[in-house]
Amino acid sequence: MAALLQHAGYEEERLLRVAQQMPCREVQAGMLLSLMGQPQQYSYPSIFIYGHRASGKSHVMHVLLKELELPHATVSCVECVSVALLFEQVLLSFFGCDAASLLPRSPSLSDFVRIYRQQCSQSPAKQTRYIVMEKAELLRDTDANLLPALLRLQELVEDNVTIILLSEIVWDKFRPNTGCFEPLLLHFPDYSKGELQQILSQDRHPSYTAEFYSSYINILLGVFYSVCRDLRELRHLAALNFSKFCEPLAEGKVKETDTHKLWRNIEPHLKKAMQTVYLREVSSLQWEQMQQMEEKESGALRGLSAHTHVELPYYSKFLLIAAYLASYNPARTDKRFFLKHHGKIKKTNFLKKNEKTSNHLLGPKPFPLDRLLAIFYSVVDNRVAPTASIFSQISSLVTLQLLTQVSHDDQLDAPKYKCAVSMDFICAISRTVNFDIVKYLYDFL
Amino acid sequence: MTTTSVSKGCFVFKPSAKKKKKTLSLEDHFTNGCEGADNSEIRFKLCQDLWHKIRADTEVLQDELNRKILDSLLDFTRKCSSTRQHSDWASQMRASEIPTAALVLGVNVPDHDMTFQSLSELLQQSVTPHVASVQAKECGALKHLMKRVLERLMDTVVTVDDEEEEETEQTSTQLHKSVHCSLSTLCDWYNAKTMKSKTGTPGKKRSSPVRDDPQQPPVVIIFKDLEAFNPKVLQDFILICSRYVERLPLMFIFGIATSPSTIQHMLPHSVSSLLCIELFQSLSCTQHLATVIDKLILTPQFPFKLNGKVMQVLMSIFLYHDFSVRNFIKGVQLALLEHFHSQPLSVLCCKKKEALLNVMQLSHHDLESIRHLLSFRRYVEKQEPQEQLNLFRDDTHLKEVCQKLIKDLRKYHKNYYPVLRCLHTLTSSLPRYPLGKQVRELHLICLEKNVWENEDYQTAMKLLKMLAKDELIASLQRCVEILQPVKSKKMKKALVELEELLAKFKQLDTVAAETLPCVEDCITSPVKNLQKKTDLFQLQKTLLEMNESRRAKKLSPFEVLRNEALEFIDGLVKSHLSPPESQTLNEVCYYSSSATVRRHLNATPRTSIQAALSSPYYYLQNESLKTEDGTVSNAAPDICIAYKLHLECGRLINLYDWLEAYATVVSAAEGNNPDSDNVRKVEEVKHARFIQAVSELEFLGFIKSTKQKTDHVARLTWGGC
């Protein structure tokens, strides 16, 4: 294993330690090491690493740079709300806070380069300096010149510096249309089942043997591997269900080696956890409480999505119903639903071709405020004065995200809205006010 | 103003401090335009006192209501911060998750502020000094959110620990110097802070409130309105926070107005997997209101009362419009203020002693207004002729009578509320709730007219007559509990009677055991007879007889007792639940102008604008503007004429036609013959006035310019309704 990680510039035992900390990524680490070369050698200006979530990109970089004690700066692009923050962090970790404070108020790229050069002339690099940018896909949204400049930062600052970009997206989606310096691409493939087993087995419970924990992981992977290969999620699941797995052991019913009995015990729980995989319906703390309570009373704790009922004031309910009707009925049909003497309109003659598909499949359509109010006044059973609070209810429905405003914010210019609630939700709401909404929906005529 | 400058330019003149208008005090505002100004000071004081009391009481009440949920939240934060320091396997595996409390508060957003206020105060007192709450409207972008969080966290420290003020000021100036703030700054600050408290003298720390763990207090960030946040901002913020969670014990509290599933709508799995969410559900706002009404309205404690219509308005605003308890209390405040402001006799609306004193100080003018009160005139009519004369002539006699009447009114209130509650406990468990589910509904019925004349009351009584024994006894028992603390004489008498009744009910059990065989006897005997006869006609006859006999059968002792109990209750209702309008001098305590309350709380801006435009006389009160219905005098303001003309047009209005029509109307107003030559050409002044009117209409939102057709404007309102 360690044989893969051999490099002239580094000490043997350090490499060994590195190898221990990143199981199943020796090939990639070895590749990286050979790209990086010996500490004092110039490295390739920019390296682009991509792979799915939880495939060990940041971990490998972190361990390598840390264990080999190489000068580096790790920056997460999410955090850099402005480029200034990015520059500051880089300068801070290479040259200390004095250098960082030299940056002007809203620095440009050339400010950064100037200060970097100035600083590195004072303390030239003895070893290659590394800048690791996590979530590099966000760099595409910043200034157009930032990414190309970073890719050839080595040339710009005339220093031994290498940029390493980490991303979940392939390089093709990055390439600016003006062209740029092409970085070296390195792919981190997904872990295989065996590798997942090996990695997950590492965080074993201290009071149980490694074999025991590994057999547990084996069972877990057998159930979940077909639906979920995300290492992080699997780790979360493993932590959640382990206490249940150990239960018969603690009670002294079975021995550690009796995997079959253990499997019989844990299987129903894993099946249950399967229903909510990825959802994080309840917090892990609550999950544990739930499992303890299970024998006594199940269903006392419900997940987040179980609570969908929303209490609304009376007129807000009708406003929401009116909005739903306006969103899902074609405007031409309003006459049919809301006028007393509409005459008979057959559905088939009345339809235009594109309206034949269900409006519910097409999703909500925008409607103007006037139409909303017209429908509102005809569905609500008593006369309502157009008071200020009716209008403020519309806007509070927008803030509650039950309606969405489609057009711009100008109130004078006939604002348009869309209804953002589901059929089930509106049915529940209309039931509370004794309004048969299905009778008013064009799709269910 | 002049300057000494030679050159032309703009000069700023700051108003000198002396010239600043003296701001009027609250009292001046109150006395201004107040009815019967001579005792306005007393009324102002009474009003203020009453309001302060009401406010203090409601605050206490709300704190109590929120206590349960706040306590569980505090527990949650404590537990989270303590598990963090444990190093057992499970909590290690969870270390990367940020503990999050999802606090579901309901859609009454205006009320939430208070809850969050007390939540953050409690947190600061007992768990951690580091609490920051943010609102969506101040965090449009990630950097604003970040900035707010950092500012709040560091500021709270300044206010909490005074001895460290210098230190934090330094860091905050540093923060301002380097404008871009990041969580790593916060991390450093936090480390410095905790290190300091670790090495600092323990004696100093003792003075600050007790904390679970002074070394590692969690950093709590409260998102007041989760729905309104930009999801992208929130996601990024959580991502960033999760990078620091190992160094910084962060914790979130999400305030949710709708339902917890919004979290899943807003956050993708990659983000929500970083959180460890626990759900907390608060009391529903209707329950909240019920308690507030119970403690604020349905009590003789406050002399100020609302009449049925005003209650109705306030209730409908709550139920139909906003669900906000805070706005309800604001409504009560408005009614209170209006009452004391507009009713000169409200000097008597106070505690008994004060009221009696104030009666003696009434002026002749006030006494005259008492004589004009509707309820007082009704009272006078019932008196002897000699007494009537006395009441109208003799001021001192009237004062004495007033004192008696005020006492009577107080007694009425003392008896009204307990009886109301008794009736409610009896009827609230009946099927279909003939008298309402909530006590406030029953209260509204009682305020309107004599409740015993109500049809629903009759049905309720009928249903009560069918009640089973144990149910009846249970509700009567509850009535006893209600009556027990009441201190009025009549209620004490009622209590004694009720207890006697209950005792009889209980005796019934022992008596019933003895009488039971006889009852059985008379039921079984005809059945025995039945077996002998086989003829169909005979059978029918006997069955009918049996039915008759059963109906006419003597009531069982329980039934007799039940009827007695219900008659007793009926008597109580009839003597104590008469509507307040029937009470003499009720105008002193009851505020009745529902129209004012509605106009202030539930304004209709659009209707008023339209009223102003279509009938300017309504606001301007100029005789020349008075017209028949639906027409506008041609002497009306330009904008009214333009508005009237625009109502006659379709969706698109031709500006030139509009101008012509306008010019015709206006020149008719000036007395010119519309056909004469010089009118043909529109004068420049008229043109300008027309353009001004049109732009005013545009400003008010009735029309807008359009690109669909040249020289046209589009109408924004449909119809002129």
Automatic annotation (TrEMBL), chain A:
Broad class of where this protein is predominantly found: nucleus
One Gene Ontology term of the molecular function aspect: ATP binding
Transmembrane stretches, start-end: none
GO annotation, cellular component aspect: nuclear origin of replication recognition complex
Cellular compartment(s): Nucleus
UniProt domain Orc1-like AAA ATPase: residue ranges: 22-164
Subunit structure of this chain's protein: Component of ORC, a complex composed of at least 6 subunits: ORC1, ORC2, ORC3, ORC4, ORC5 and ORC6. ORC is regulated in a cell-cycle dependent manner. It is sequentially assembled at the exit from anaphase of mitosis and disassembled as cells enter S phase.
PANTHER family in UniProt: ORIGIN RECOGNITION COMPLEX SUBUNIT 5
Name of the protein in question: Origin recognition complex subunit 5
Organism field: Dicentrarchus labrax
Lineage: Eukaryota, Metazoa, Chordata, Craniata, Vertebrata
From TrEMBL, chain B:
Record-linked PANTHER family: ORIGIN RECOGNITION COMPLEX SUBUNIT 3
Pfam hit, one: ORC3_ins
CDD domains according to UniProt: Orc3 (cd20704)
GO cellular component terms attached to this protein's record: DNA replication preinitiation complex; nuclear origin of replication recognition complex; nuclear pre-replicative complex
GO biological process: DNA replication initiation
Key word DNA-binding present: yes
Family indicated by similarity: Belongs to the ORC3 family.
Known role: Component of the origin recognition complex (ORC) that binds origins of replication. DNA-binding is ATP-dependent. The specific DNA sequences that define origins of replication have not been identified yet. ORC is required to assemble the pre-replication complex necessary to initiate DNA replication. Binds histone H3 and H4 trimethylation marks H3K9me3, H3K27me3 and H4K20me3.
GO MF annotations, alphabetized: DNA replication origin binding
This protein's name: Origin recognition complex subunit 3
Record-annotated Origin recognition complex subunit 3 insertion domain positions: 360-593
Limits of the Origin recognition complex subunit 3 winged helix C-terminal domain: 606-718
Domain Origin recognition complex subunit 3 N-terminal: 1-348
Native source species: Dicentrarchus labrax (European seabass)
Lineage: Eukaryota, Metazoa, Chordata, Craniata, Vertebrata
Location(s), subcellular: Nucleus
Keywords from the named record: DNA replication, DNA-binding, Nucleus, Phosphoprotein
